[in-house]
Automatic annotation (TrEMBL), chain A:
SMART domains, alphabetized: AAA (SM00382)
SUPFAM superfamilies assigned: P-loop containing nucleoside triphosphate hydrolases
Leader sequence residues: none
Source taxonomy: Bacteria, Bacillati, Actinomycetota, Actinomycetes, Streptosporangiales
Pfam families hit by this protein: ABC_tran (PF00005)
UniProt-listed CDD domains: ABC_NrtD_SsuB_transporters
The UniProt record lists the keyword Translocase: no
Keyword Aminoacyl-tRNA synthetase among record annotations: no
Record PROSITE patterns: ABC_TRANSPORTER_1 (PS00211), ABC_TRANSPORTER_2 (PS50893)
UniProt protein name: NitT/TauT family transport system ATP-binding protein
Domain ABC transporter residues, every copy: 9-240
Keyword terms of this UniProt record: ATP-binding, Nucleotide-binding, Transport
Alphabetized GO MF terms: ATP binding; ATP hydrolysis activity
Superkingdom: Bacteria
TrEMBL record, chain B:
Family designation: Belongs to the binding-protein-dependent transport system permease family.
Residues spanning the signal sequence: 1-41
Pfam families per record: BPD_transp_1
Protein known as: NitT/TauT family transport system permease protein
SUPFAM superfamilies according to UniProt: MetI-like
Keywords: Cell membrane, Membrane, Signal, Transmembrane, Transmembrane helix, Transport
Gene3D superfamilies given in the database record: MetI-like
GO cellular component, one term: plasma membrane
């Protein structure tokens, strides 16, 4: 791997240990990796393996027990203005219009009203919500609300977009469509993305690289480069190569999912 | 035919009533007043000593024209306002503290929920003994009644903030003030405002109730005095105006709620 560039985000031996009932539990152990500038990287792993925790650590929301995250050599110790997040749960503000939702981050950052409204308006065009700027989130579908959240993140022109199972709460059809929409948007912006998912096909569809996480204590088990051509149109996504990637990832992750499931069943009984 | 007839398809909904809702409401109020008037005129309500509404209406300007009425009203409203303001401040602050420290909240919760059920008015005589006749024991009683619902709803409102909203505030690098003003407070308002409204209703009820028992002024005191002096017409006039005040205050709260909660517009 080449030396990290200016916009690269580096995770260096990130370890996270919890103490519950006096016993230490290692949630993440020595997770390392580099998200190259402008790359779309997915973290794929079984439920409860600490993917979201790792994302929070990269975001600066949670401090790791040991190890560190750096961007351009600078250590991430707190949330940053140039990192933007999209969450699994609906995080739109129901008392704000769609436009004001998208402009929220700019408002916090002190961008003048006229400018932030103009930028938010442009961004609504990019996510295909032009014409909905004066709607309230409640008037929109779940998929549209997640697009509002994506627009709110992208309007900050972030160096890094952190997405925590952003389509997890959507039904399968909507999820696929919004995923394709995200691809189109990403291809226009080329922001670095770290995308958490447990959906193999989603990971292959979107990513340049898929990092497979093991069950607890989680670490990065494998890094799979997805060398599918872009734009990833229907032809690419229905091709045999796509299926080869999906099957390959399933082979890696299958054992992890099975034992994670057994662990959860043991914990429940 | 059973109420839950699942077999038959429902008949199509009737076309909506052509009369606007407010007109129907006004007609209902007029009908009730007419029934009251008729009940008194026919002698059916004689044993209750209730005067006819028209009689009350004739007396209304005289009562409203008197200085005594306004000093009583001012006293009651001021007492209510003082108790409510204290309850709102203490309830919001206390609720925020309890939402911040869940362990403390867990320990205190049974007491707080229990306090909800206590008719605080029973402590009024004690307060009278300690503080003497005046507004202090009334304010204290009304405060204790009002603070509980405000505190409990604040605790619940802040406790039920969506984790995604908290995370959003942090990820956007909000200052504490920005997080509260832009995200957390508006998110909590749908529960906070009804709590405050309930607190006001409790404060007013406790104030008038305590005045009714023992006081030297106030609408509650006056209604009690008129009752003891068999001045039925004046008593009912006071009651009607009292109701109007309470409804007016409640409407004011609803108006504030509609202005503050922009999501309702």
């Amino acid at each position: 791997m080449s030396a990290p560039g200016a916009g690269d985000v580096v995770m260096d031996a990130v370890t996270m240990t919890y103490h519950s009932q006096g016993r230490p539990t290692v949630a993440i152990q020595n997770a390392s990796g580099t998200i190259g500038r402008g790359r779309f990287v997915s973290i794929l792993g079984p439920s409860g393996c600490g993917k979201s925790t790792l994302l929070d650590i990269v975001a600066g929301l949670t401090a790791p027990t040991s190890g560190q995250v750096r961007i351009g050599g600078e250590r991430v110790t707190a949330p940053r203005r140039d990192f933007a997040m999209v969450f699994q749960d609906d995080s739109t503000l129901h008392w704000r219009t769609v436009l004001d939702n998208v402009a929220l981050g700019l408002e916090v950052a002190g961008v003048p009203k006229a400018e932030r409204r103009a930028r938010a308006y442009d961004m609504l065009g990019l996510v295909g919500l032009r014409g909905f700027e004066n709607h309230r989130p409640r008037q929109l579908s779940g998929g549209m609300r997640q697009r509002v959240a994506i627009a709110r993140a992208l309007v900050m022109e972030p160096a890094m977009l952190l997405m925590d199972e952003p389509f997890g709460a959507l039904d399968q059809q909507t999820r696929t469509l919004v995923g394709i929409e995200l691809l189109r948007i990403w291809e226009e912006t080329r922001t670095s993305v770290l995308f958490v998912t447990h959906d193999i096909r989603e990971a292959v569809t979107l990513s340049d690289e898929v990092w497979v996480m093991s069950r607890r204590p989680s670490t990065i088990l494998d890094v799979v480069r997805i060398d599918l051509p872009r734009p990833r149109d229907a032809e690419v996504l229905r091709g045999p190569e796509f299926e080869t990637y999906v099957n390959g990832l399933w082979d890696v992750i299958q054992a992890e999912v099975a034992s994670a499931m057994r662990e959860q069943e043991r914990a429940a009984s | 035919m059973s109420v839950l007839n699942l077999d038959r398809p429902r008949p199509p909904a009737r076309p909506a009533l052509r009369v606007p809702a407010w007109a129907a409401r006004a007609a209902l109020a007029a009908a009730l007043l007419a029934a009251w008037q008729l009940a008194v005129a026919s002698g059916a309500a004689a044993s209750a000593g209730v005067p006819a509404p028209l009689e009350c209406l004739r007396r209304l300007p005289e009562v409203l024209g008197g200085a005594r009425f306004w000093s009583d009203a001012a006293r009651s409203l001021l007492t209510t306002a003082e108790a409510f303001a204290a309850a709102a401040l203490a309830g919001l602050a206390g609720g925020a503290v309890l939402a911040r420290f869940p362990l403390v909240a867990k320990i205190l919760e049974p007491y707080l929920v229990g306090a909800y059920a206590v008719p605080v008015v029973v402590f009024y005589p004690t307060f009278l003994v300690v503080f003497g006749l005046g507004t202090v024991p009334i304010v204290l009683t009304a405060f204790l009644m009002a603070v509980v619902p405000v505190l409990l709803t604040t605790m619940v409102a802040l406790g039920e903030l969506r984790p995604a909203h908290r995370k959003l505030a942090r990820s956007l690098c909000c200052t504490r003030g920005q997080a509260a003003r832009l995200i957390l407070l508006p998110s909590a308002l749908p529960l906070l405002l009804p709590g405050l409204k309930l607190g006001f209703v409790y404060a007013m009820a406790a104030t008038v109730g305590a005045e009714f028992i023992v006081a030297d002024a106030g609408l509650g005191f006056r209604i009690g005095e008129l009752y003891r002096n068999f001045e039925a017409v004046d008593m009912y006039v006071h009651i009607i105006v009292m109701i109007a005040f309470a409804v007016g205050c409640n409407s004011l709260f609803n108006l504030v709620e509609r202005i503050v909660r922009r999501d309702l517009t």
